Amino acid sequence: NASSHPHISTGLPQPPDLVESEIIIQTKGLNKYFGDKHVLKDINFAVRKQEVVALIGPSGSGKSTLIRCLNALEQASSGEIYIQGQKLDPYLPVKQLIPIRRELGMVFQNFNLFPHMTVLQNVIEAPLLVRKIPRDQAVALGEKLLAKVGLSEKRDVYPSRLSGGQKQRVAIARALAMQPRALLFDEPTSALDPELVGEVLKVMKDLAYEGSTMVVVTHEMQFARDVSDRVVFMSDGMIVEEGDPEELFKQPKNKRTQLFLERIL
Ligand code: ADP
Ligand code: MG
Questions:
Q1: Is the CB of 34 under 6 A from ligand 1?
Q2: Which residue, of 115, 147, 225, 234, is most buried by count of CB atoms within 10 Å of its CB?
Q3: Residue 217's closest CA among 62, 81, 92?
């Protein structure tokens, strides 16, 4: 499980060390409706610094909606979200929302790379534009991150030339480039051919062992079991059960968790 290294390592100066129990992400009584469909029901969720949380549950249970709300990609209907102690009020003007949103790096199922940019350009675009760091520094950071995900030799290639596993590793490097407080992964390996899943999970495992704070929506139960510090099971818009991976997989308490695990394992 995640060790005690500081923060996500991107080669940039790190903030002062913070207390172990620091909460990076917290929701209080979060609700989300799409029309009259109640998709998130009173979600109380917290992620501590350096914690790796696996978010599991059947399709349609609200996992994506939850992490999209955390990143203000989706607007919660009621309740509160705090990122690093700052209240994420979706009604804030975008100008005030951006710096809070920037605290979280997002990795999607379908990579969402910019097709007209090379691998390196994809990685350094946001640091250049948003963080306005000098170009030579951005390039050095980009190269360092590409080395970290094992793609140094692909720096000048366009995404169309990459395999799905390589694209997803670029997407991870791109998320890291903004030096986020936490990384949110939404089924990062679900779109990949089976033989490419391992290389992406390996990168994620390395990040976890370095002490990155991560929320991972996944159907990879072995990964959840081996790498996460805590598993959260969602069903029908609710957090039904959460706990230690070993215990939750061996002896789920809730009937719905039991049924889900029986079907998936
Ligand atoms: P999961 O990620 O666990 O599969 P989602 O968060 O994607 O679940 O979806 C939860 C529920 O919300 C589903 O019933 C889904 O159909 C619905 N939903 C998700 N996004 C939208 C949307 N933009 N408009 C309407 N309904 C949505
Ligand atoms: Mg989803």
A1: yes
A2: 234
A3: 62
pTM of the prediction? 0.91
Beta strand spans in the chain (E): 23-34, 37-48, 52-56, 78-83, 86-87, 104-107, 182-186, 214-217, 230-235, 238-243
Grouping H, G, I as helix, E, B as strand and the rest as coil, residue 206 is helix
ipTM metric: 0.99
Angle at 52 between CA 46 and CA 57, to 5 degrees: 75
Long-range contacts of 33-37 (CB under 8 A, 24+ apart): 33/77
Query: What tokens were used for 10?
Result: 């991107």
How many angstroms is it from 37 CA to the middle of ligand 1?
Answer: 9
Percent of the chain with pLDDT over 70: 92
| Dist. CA 66 → ligand 1 center (Å) | 10
Task: Write the pLDDT tens digit of every residue in 140-170.
Answer: 999 999 999 999 999 999 999 999 999 999 9
- Please tell me if the CB atom of residue 218 comes closer than 6 angstroms to any atom of ligand 1: no
pLDDT tens digits, 69-82: 999 889 999 999 99
CA-proximal residue: ligand 1, atom 25 (nearest):
34
* Residues ≥6 apart with Cβ < 8 Å to 159: 111, 113, 114, 115, 117, 119, 122, 167, 170
Question: What is the number of other CB atoms lying within 10 angstroms of the CB of residue 58?
Answer: 17
Ligand 1 atom closest to the CA of 40, numbered from 1 = 10
- 211 closest CA partner among 27, 12, 17, 55: 17
